[in-house]
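Thread: quick sanity check before group meeting

JM: Hey all, I'm pulling together slides for Thursday and realized we never actually wrote out the predicted structure for the chain we discussed last week. Dropping the sequence here so it's in one place. If anyone has concerns about the input, flag it before I start.
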Amino acid sequence: MRLLDYVKNDLGLSAYKDSYLLRRLNSRMVRVGTTSEEEYLKLLKTSRKELDALKDALSINVTSFFRNTEVWDKLKELLKCKSYVKIWSAACSEGREPYSLAIICEEIGTKADIIATDIDEDALNIAKKGEYSNVEEELSYLKSIDRYFTTQNGKVTVKPFLKTGIRFIKHNMISDPPPSRDFDFVLCRNFLIYVEQEHKPVIAQNIAKALKKDGILVLGKTETLPTEGFFEPLDRVNKIFRKV
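JM (edit): ok, ran it. Output follows.
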């Protein structure tokens, strides 16, 4: 299939599952009004606008504040033991996870430096802006949102003080080295489900390189990553591991 080959090889997306790529390709083909793969491939090669639209469609932007609250309860327990932490929020999408981390650390009195990365520059720009709509239910985990957000016209905006400990950086989880090698925590949640199994050992190695000894890795609750030789389970239910 020439179209899929082009996306995987020429666009550098060979690590992603065929089923995921095909769903997004079919969606874009419907949007532009074609059922011909050859016609759509020609469009991708001649239209920068459609190429950017496809890349945006392929970005993994499923995100929320405090997703799986039981995981955040466990994270809070682990973070309480630290006076200072350095955290990597990998594949952070539009920034709700790193802001959730910053809030938790603020509430328990743990100083945190957070590096939040994603491959999608548009998602990172949204994250840096820190403005969100329809998140009231997500923020119900907090006793009060006024400490961390301003609310206006149905939108919430992250207060400036919460942004000071977060750096947003463009980063490819497949091909780039880790942004640092001295993290206490790495969160890589709801990204690996889109990645082919053959590429996961490399990701596991890079995350292991990024973490200090005894550092903590948190995965999405439905995700797997090769852990032998790198990590030991700390909480199997919540997919929390410790570097060995």
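AS: nice. The longest strand covers residues 211-219. The domain at 69-243 is CATH 3.40.50.150 (Rossmann fold).
JM: adding both to the slides.
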